[in-house]
Amino acid sequence: MSFFTLLLILLVIGIVGFVLCRQRVLSLAANNPRSLHSLPNYYGWHAFVMAVVPAVLALAVWMIVQPLLVERQLTSFIPAEIREDPPARTLFMADVRRVADGLNVAIERGVITSEEAATMPPEQVRGALASARVALGGEVSTAVLDAAQDYRGFAATGALGRSILAILLSLAGVVYAFRMTSPQFRARNRVEFVVQGLLILASTIAILTTVGIVLSLLTESLRFFTLYPIQDFFFGLTWSPNFRGNSALGLVPLLWGTLYISLVAMLVAVPIGIFTAIYLAEYAHPRVRAVIKPLIEVIAGIPTVVFGLFALVTVGPFLRDWFAQPFGFGNSGSSVMTAGLVIGILNIPFISSLADDIINAVPQAMRDGSYGLGATKSETIRQVILPAALPGIVGAVLLAASRAIGETMIVTMGAGASAALDLNPFQAMTTITVKIVSQLTGDTEFNSPETLVAFALGMTLFVITLGLNIFALYIVRKYREQYE
Question: Quick check: is 202 in a domain?
């Protein structure tokens, strides 16, 4: 039984429990809702919650525990030389899962039977998977195939046990809710308590996810610094990775390219975004605003890869032919200016929307008071509205800067991949995010500093963007004024 089908069954059981418990409490109250502690629907929702929530939580725990148990059962298949090497062990298990999934696809498409999948030798596996149009990254070793065949058995047993457990818990929840249903039962209190618990759980998951990301980056970064000197990373002026050794992994060129491109982007996005927000909030007619604002916000919905193509095909050649070559700045279409301009365009709706909301939040009484003192509209905007909205606008600008620093696709296609220390804005450069992708792309060993440096770069970028976000929140909270 698939996971989606199991969720549908749990949903149906919950709906049935909702109807049964609601009808039961109404019959016990002789169709007089006034005698009930809670509204009739709360009794139904109590049954639905008891039928779905415990089963879903059990499924979540099962999905976490089952892979650990299966991997422990497959330890005997792992070759001794990689058993104590965590990265190699992870790659081996990834191959096992990939082959097992491929065998399942081949069975579903009728290429092989379940009995053949359990006994097929390695030399026939690739042919069977190729017939099922399943691609494999490399050869299938005997150890991987044996582990994959046992993995399929453990996974099938686990799926069956998962389904039985979830359905039994769901049915038990409905029976419990049905027995608890009575006019005196505090159904509303129970339902609100469970909902509050789910909200707390959701917020806890978000926090734990952030902690997990930080810990994973920090752990791998510390591994990197045991293989490469920390002072050479933070103060090195050369970025020249070489997977055969003798690499120069200096952060400074990448940090310079990141900040340079972000500076150009903000020089484009900030004035245009703020002026657009001022026009929409203070000058535009409501009909004009209703048309222009959605059109501007459409930019935010365009995929960044499309912006990257725009930078590669249009902006880059235009800047090269009209500015770089005529003035002797270079002959490359990939440059800081190309990526900065396009990222700036991408950030315009982000700044304009936030600034527009902030400006509109300034009380109308302040405008009326300024007009009453004889100030013109432009004087009111400069001397009253913008000072009142300035903390929020600064916060929006800093958040946009964080987004510009983290951009990857546009830089890859518009700025090139050259790590250089140069003031020429028409010179090809790169950023930290691009190098994170390049260092982790391909068949690389996770024990080499050339690969682990990606985690150190990610940790550095995380600290930079976190600092900008904290600074933005500090400014907003310190200088924000509350208006009655």
Answer: no
User: Which residues form the domain of 393?
Assistant: 239-479
Q: Is residue 162 part of a domain?
A: yes
Q: List pLDDT tens digits, range 188-230.
A: 999 999 999 989 988 998 899 989 999 999 999 999 999 999 9
Task: Please give the tally of structural domains in the chain.
Answer: 2
Q: What is the pLDDT of residues 424-472, one digit of tens each?
A: 999 999 999 999 998 887 666 677 888 899 999 999 999 998 888 888 7
Q: Which of 185, 200, 219 is the last residue before a domain boundary?
A: 185
Say which range, 34-48, 85-99, 251-265, 421-435, has the weakest mean pLDDT: 85-99
Total residue count of the chain as it appears in this document: 484
Do the domain assignments include residue 381? yes
CA atoms within a 13 Å half-sphere pointing along the CA-CB vector of 390: 9
Residues 407 and 279 in one domain: yes
